[in-house]
Amino acid sequence: MSTLLVSSKGQIVLPAALRRRLGMGAGARIEVLEESDGLKLRVVRSVATGDMIGMAGMVKAPARGVPRHLEDFDPASLLTRSRRGKP
Hints:
Helix content is 20%, strand content 16%. It has a domain at 1-46: Pemi-like Protein 1, Chain: D, CATH 2.10.260. The chain is built from two helices and two strands; from the N terminus they run αββα.
């Protein structure tokens, strides 16, 4: 068990080994719960967000010389078209 020191600004520092074990980097969020016998700290796991530029090129389909439509990438519509005999 580690003892933490509270700074004059009210900040605490978590030991590096603990941060590594919990996968916490800069900007990580911790929820503080007040309980009858003290405080409970819980790491808040957020879903990483990405921008659209970072996703460019993730979906690729062979070009057939015709413009592509959103339904060209929908598996359900591909099954429907294959049943109708369309390419």
